[in-house]
What does this fold into?
Amino acid sequence: MRREAAATFLACAVFAVIYGFAARHLSSMPRETVAAELLATLPRFAQVTMAAGDRHLAANLAGFRVLVASTDRMSKEDYAVQARLQKDIAWLNPAHEDNSYIAASILPWSGEVDAALYVLKRAADARPFDWSPLFYYGFGFYHFKHDPAEGARWLLAAAERATVPQDQWALQNIAAQWIEKGYETRTAANLVESMAAGAPAGSFRKYLHLRAVRLGDLARLRELADTYARFKGKNLSRLDDLVSAGLLESLPRDPLGLGYDLDPEGRPILRTSPAARVQ
It folds into this structure.
């Protein structure tokens, strides 16, 4: 027994020495700064199999990998893996709330716009009681795809889900501003006026109506500016030229009190503030 114990002790001592030497040697070697949590993704069927056939558990396990990853040291390749993981989660459990919020806050800002939109659309379809995925989905089109019209469409869809009037008004207000940027001016005026007609009676309906009026006036100013350019052979240098040329009796008053101006090409535009004059 003593001989066996001594042999075991000697073997353990030798192993400890070898392990210590190896650890010291490996610790001095350069290592890649990739996020170990995001080195690879498994096929979806494999993820479900490893979760004993439970799709929701598989989604949670993949979600843990995303949650523990440190974004301050992630490379573009790491974000691509994270995007695949989050798309997998959205497929396994589209109603996974954390997944949609993480996708909205991280993926598009890291170049993974399409992946973020996929996750958010899946969440929006699976959570018909929740307006926030549609808001972030619309924001993705507005900010990252540079498509205000499409973004406004999804914000209006989000507003239909909102149950708190203030949330509905806020979403519709943003949508109205995006409509102004995404549509031809006359079309935008008609769309905002339709929004006003569908809003409940009160101050917000009046506000939308005033936005539609100022858009209609802007459309009229632009039409007259084109007429002026055709007959005079030059663009407007100031809005008052429309009055001097007899095309208008007087300039319209902006119902929101901000006013109208000209861009550097002589095209009428809306002012964003009373002092915001184009130089």
User: Anything to note?
Assistant: The chain has three domains: 34-127, 128-182, 196-279.
